[in-house]
Structures are given as C-alpha cells and as structure tokens.
C-alpha cells in the first residue's frame, strides 16, 4: 500500500513538472511558432469556449473601420463605421476572437513588416480609439494572455500554417504575435470579399494623415438628425435610476440647477439634460461599487461598473444608447468615457467632452458627468457631401492629424461632417 502511494505521488509530481515546463517553453519569444501554439492548445484543451460569439460588451462597443485584402493588386474591401450588425464585421469577429485568445507575443516589429503583411491576404481592424487589449478581447468574447493598449489589429496569412497577429498602438508602435488561427481561415474570408476600391492613406500619397487611416472609395452621406433632451430626463426618473430617494427634501435650486444631497452623495440636474454626480465617501448602493478580484480593479472590471451606470441612466430616462469611447488608467483608479453614436457615426459636443465620463477611485464610482440626449433621424436631408478623396486631400493640405466623420451636437438640427482631427 505504501509503495503504491509513493508511486502515485511520483507520477503526479512528474506530470506537474512536465506541464509547467511545456507552458514555460511556449512563452519563449524565439520558440517555433507552430509548436508554440500546439503546446498552448494542448494546455487549454479542457476549456470549453463558444466560438464566434461576441462578448457581453458587444452592445456598448463603438463602430470600427475594416479593410479586407485578398490580393492587393486588385484592391481592398473597406467598411467605415461598421457596427455590430455589419455583415463583414460579424464574419471577422470569430477570426480575431481565436487569434487574440491564442496570441503569443513575439516582440516589437517594424512598420515596414506590417505594410508587407497587409499586401498579403489579410484583415485590418481599426478601433478608431486606443483601448486596452483586455477590453477588446472581452468585446470579442475572449480573454488575452497579456495586455497592452491597442489602436488597431491586423491578421495576416503570411505565416506557414497559422495567421500572424499585429497589434498597433496609438503612438504607432507595432507588436507581432503568433496565433493558433489557421491561415486557411484568413484566406477563405479574404477571398469571399470583393474589392470596393478602398485603401489606406499611405497608398494614396497622403503625407499628413496617419498612414493607416482607412479610406473607402465612396461613402454615402449620413442622415441629418435632431438633438433633443428626452422627456424622461426628469429629476424623479434620474433620482430613481441612480438609487437616490426620489422624494427627498434635501434639495435646492441654484442658478437653474437642482441640487440633491444625500450624504455623502451630491447630484446636480440642469434643465438642459446635464447631470453631475460626486461622492465624498463610501456609498453602500451597489450601483456605485466596483466588483474587483484584487485590490485594484482591472480595466474590464472598471468598465463593467461604468457600463452598469450607463445602462441605468439610459434606461431610466429613455435616452439614446451610449458607446464606449475610452478607458484610461489614473493614479487613483480609472476614467471610463462613453459617446453617442447614430448609425455608427459618433456624436461630439462643441467642448469635445464625452456624453458620459465616469471616475473610479479604488473600488467605487466617485463622480460622473452625463449629458442626457436623444437623436431623431430626419428624412429631408438635402445638402452637399464631399467625396472621400476630396475630404482627404483637404485634410492632408491643412496638415490634419486624421480624418473622421462626426456629428457636432450644438443643439437642434445636426448634419454629419468631415473633420480633420
């Protein structure tokens, strides 16, 4: 009996040592790509995962730009401001999901190598804003084995058996990753997309616009919209949605702003739909608490808390839905910001502030600023709309740092416009 126990213990130790060694080897940057992904696939074979399904964050994720290349000599298929219902984006999500979930980072690479990769059958996903990779992975319905801030992702069929993933940061830094995604998956999708004349700014001879700006051949003019403060943006609805006592007498009006105080919280509500919240201490209501496994919330944990608040505000007032803009780490915690979108086109305010900005310190929401709005599409849009090539040329001549389409909400009727960022 004692001998059997000793043998069993020795076997268990050997198994643990072997598994540990395989995992450590698979993390080496110089380890051969195809064997590395096989090792990681072996170690994760027991994990059950629903493939090809976007994560729970899909409804809050902003629209993106896409560029799919089959053979670059024949052009690319480009979609600007593709939202969750875009058919091409829905086809791309499962591939990026598998790639990000299995990615092993090799190291930083040259811009030239990314451009060469984009000349092969490839997929390019421009997030339009820099976000933590962990947040992007959560949108895709995955988790990433490492984290860094990314502005865009590219999948290339340039590998022998498995696609290569490129991660590009907001400052232009590029990192190369091995993945377990078969090259055949990228080839199949890229070959199914007919080129539509789109491309990148660096292919059009534009020098001032960022080189990886995605430019379609043409773009239909977005509809005009009407900006309104929803009828549901009442003090009663806001107090109820935010877990305040809607019948409290601890309130007063100052310069047209209703101020409600329920220590340690203060809420300010203006007739124009602007809402401000501050807290000077711990708040017991769960709406203001951040669920975190560690001492400090992760980016996704902070985003979960901010999104709960965004949903409470939207549903409580019948306002337009909010979409993620940025997630930034601060010394005290996180700042999470959201914008409005209309058919994928972002809505800005003249002061360039966001529709909702949430401040998180430690494990609590300590402040937020919200602009409660709704937008109604108008059917009588009759105006000139610059072709993409002309808008890009003007921005390039003016030394713009980017080119985008935006609504600017100054109240009343709004028309989308090209902006040189």
Give me a quick take on this structure:
Helices cover 27% and strands 33% of the residues. It has helices at residues 2-26, 33-43, 87-102, 111-117, 133-140, 183-191, 235-241, 299-317, 388-397; strands at residues 64-69, 76-82, 104-109, 122-132, 149-156, 162-168, 174-182, 199-200, 214-215, 225-228, 251-254, 257-262, 265-270, 274-279, 322-329, 333-342, 345-348, 356-361, 364-371, 374-377, 403-408, 412-414, 417-420. The chain is globular and about 70 Å long.
Describe this protein's structure.
The chain is an alpha+beta fold. It has helices at residues 2-26, 33-43, 87-102, 111-117, 133-140, 183-191, 235-241, 299-317, 388-397, and strands at residues 64-69, 76-82, 104-109, 122-132, 149-156, 162-168, 174-182, 199-200, 214-215, 225-228, 251-254, 257-262, 265-270, 274-279, 322-329, 333-342, 345-348, 356-361, 364-371, 374-377, 403-408, 412-414, 417-420. It folds into 4 domains: 2-43; 56-215, no CATH class; 225-376, YycH protein, domain 2 (TATA-Binding Protein, 2-Layer Sandwich); 388-420, no CATH class. It is 27% helix and 33% strand. The strands form 4 sheets. Strands 11, 12, 13, 14, 15, 16, 17, 18, 19, 21 and 23 form an 11-stranded mixed sheet that branches. Helix 1 (2-26) packs across helix 2 (33-43). The longest helix is centred in the N-terminal third of the chain and has 25 residues, at 2-26. Residues 1-6 and 21-53 have low confidence and may be disordered.
């Amino acid at each position: 009996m004692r001998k059997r126990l000793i043998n069993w213990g020795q076997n268990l130790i050997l198994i643990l040592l072997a598994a540990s060694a395989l995992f450590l080897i698979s993390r080496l940057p110089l380890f051969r790509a195809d064997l590395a992904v096989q090792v990681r696939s072996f170690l994760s074979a027991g994990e059950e995962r629903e493939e090809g399904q976007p994560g729970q964050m899909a409804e809050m994720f902003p629209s993106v730009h896409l560029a799919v290349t089959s053979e670059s000599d024949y052009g690319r298929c480009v979609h600007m401001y593709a939202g969750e219902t875009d058919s091409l984006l829905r086809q791309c999500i499962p591939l990026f999901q598998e790639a990000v979930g299995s990615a092993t980072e090799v190291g930083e690479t040259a811009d030239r190598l990314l451009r060469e990769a984009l000349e092969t059958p490839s997929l390019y996903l421009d997030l339009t804003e820099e976000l933590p990779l962990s947040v992007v992975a959560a949108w895709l319905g995955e988790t990433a084995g490492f984290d860094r801030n990314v502005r865009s992702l590219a999948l290339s069929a340039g590998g022998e058996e498995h696609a290569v993933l490129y991660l590009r940061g907001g400052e232009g830094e590029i990192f190369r990753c091995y993945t377990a995604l078969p090259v055949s998956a990228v080839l199949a999708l890229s070959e199914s997309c007919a080129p539509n004349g789109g491309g990148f700014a660096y292919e059009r001879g534009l020098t001032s616009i960022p080189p990886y700006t995605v430019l379609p051949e043409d773009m239909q003019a977005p509809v005009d919209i009407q900006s309104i403060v929803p009828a549901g943006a009442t003090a009663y609805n806001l107090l109820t949605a935010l877990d305040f006592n809607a019948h409290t007498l601890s309130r007063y009006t100052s310069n047209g702003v209703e101020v409600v105080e329920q220590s340690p919280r203060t809420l300010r509500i203006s007739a124009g739909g602007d809402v401000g919240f501050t807290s000077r201490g711990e708040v017991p209501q769960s709406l203001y608490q951040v669920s975190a496994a560690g001492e400090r919330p992760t980016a996704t944990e902070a985003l979960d808390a901010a999104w709960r608040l965004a949903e409470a505000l939207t549903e409580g007032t019948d306002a337009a839905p909010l979409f993620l803009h940025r997630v930034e780490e601060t010394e005290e915690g996180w700042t999470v910001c959201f914008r409005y979108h209309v058919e994928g086109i972002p809505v800005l305010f003249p002061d360039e502030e966001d529709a909702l900005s949430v401040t998180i310190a430690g494990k609590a929401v300590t402040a937020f600023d919200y602009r409660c709005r709704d937008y109604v599409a108008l059917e009588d849009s009759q105006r000139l709309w610059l072709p993409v090539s002309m808008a890009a040329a003007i921005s390039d001549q003016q030394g713009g740092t980017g080119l985008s389409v935006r609504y600017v909400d100054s109240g009343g009727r709004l028309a989308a416009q090209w902006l040189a960022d």
